[in-house]
Amino acid sequence: MTESKADRRLLPRSMAARVVILSSLLAVLALLAIGSLVTTIYQGESRASFDRLLVAHRYNLIAAVGLDPDGSLTGEPQFGDLRYEDTGSGWYWEVSPVDTAPSSDDAQLRSVQLDADVPVPSAQSAPFNDFFERIYTGAGPDGRLVRIAEAELQLGEQGTPYRFRIMGNETAFRAGVASFRRQLFGWLALLGIVLVTINAAAIRFGLRPLNRVRLALQSVRSGQTRRLVGDFPPEIGPLTTEVNALIDANHDIVERARTQVGNLAHSLKTPLSVLTNEADAIDEPHGRLVAEQAAAMRLQIDHYLQRARIAAQRAALGQRTELKPVTDRLVRVMRKIAPDKIVRSDVDEDLVFAGDKHDVEEMLGNLLENAAKWSRSKFSLSGQMAERNGRAVVILTVDDDGPGIPQDQAERAMKRGQRLDETVPGTGLGLSIVSDTAAEYGGQLQLERADMGGLRARLILPAAPFSAPQQK
């Protein structure tokens, strides 16, 4: 079944949060049901026990009260319960003639603290059983509810009917049930909090293998590993197997793309080489023109083949290049190429480029060659890690003390074939290649005024996590 839009609005996107919410809701509903059931059972059992106590006291009352020779009620019932002697306790007893109104002054016996008549309901509202007994709830003398166990018996030779009534405090009984309910639901609420907490912790623990999968994928993407490796539970095993198969297929596609790009480069460069050689053999202006155009075509082909190769490499997972060895080697080369100029280098040790080594060598090589060509006496290379738009990047900066580029011409200088000084040999593709290659990796090339007075070329590239060498 597909998930409806309403479900997506009501439930969070997090799978763990959904499981916690739904399981917690079920736990709360179960605890509420348990609380209601326990309260109902407790109330029923307490009611039955309360009624049994009243009936037992009524039998005690019947056994203790009788008629003396002149027909008057006599007897001193002993219940063994001090509540019958406590004023305001809500526990009373009473024996009175059935055929006499409660307000009559005829002989009757009752508790000392029972100072008012308790209404007697009709047989229709509180029916008797077959033994002329009934239990009902009524209003006590002080306005509180009382539970009444009543029986009608005939006393004396004339068989005069008398009403025997035992009254217990119904208000206190209900208050006790309510107190039990509050305590029960209080403890159930505490239990619910504990269960929800344990449930959330258990779900978080149970989903930890998914976090390990995420970390393993991150390692693959950053180039630290080539495939998903780890001790995963059987439920996640098929997922990791399919992901590894996808990674292998991705690498196969990239390798085929690289092979095709290489074949295309070979098939194009061979005819161009023949054309260039033939043009060089012609010692005429037309021959030189053909040779120059063939060289330009070769550079254009190299440029677009490189872009195709980079696009294929970008599709591959795990590309990474540690920059410190690359920059150190390029600086050594520059010092040999320009021995009369000062070349400084300040590149952090932990810089890692999320891309191919050949590409970053070509980009930095172009920038350093450009600085060596235009600088008067010195140029420098620096590199550090930074954060742009929430992602880690590597910033490589090449400064020189040459004439620089006016700010309004910086964008033009990064276009293919643009040469700001036609007197200097070149094709005008150097900065363009750097800019396009950086863009293929999601980076960029920025041209500014350097503190030295010349050009500052800032190359911003995606960073990969640094892997420190392990001690043996």
UniProtKB/TrEMBL annotation:
GO molecular function: protein histidine kinase activity
UniProt keyword list: Kinase, Membrane, Phosphoprotein, Transferase, Transmembrane, Transmembrane helix, Two-component regulatory system
UniProt catalytic activity: ATP + protein L-histidine = ADP + protein N-phospho-L-histidine
Broad enzyme group: transferase
GO cellular component terms given for this protein: plasma membrane
EC annotation from Swiss-Prot or TrEMBL: 2.7.13.3
Subcellular locations according to the entry: Membrane
Transmembrane segments: 20-42, 184-207
Name by which UniProt lists this protein: histidine kinase
Organism: Notoacmeibacter marinus
Taxonomic lineage of the native organism: Bacteria, Pseudomonadati, Pseudomonadota, Alphaproteobacteria, Hyphomicrobiales
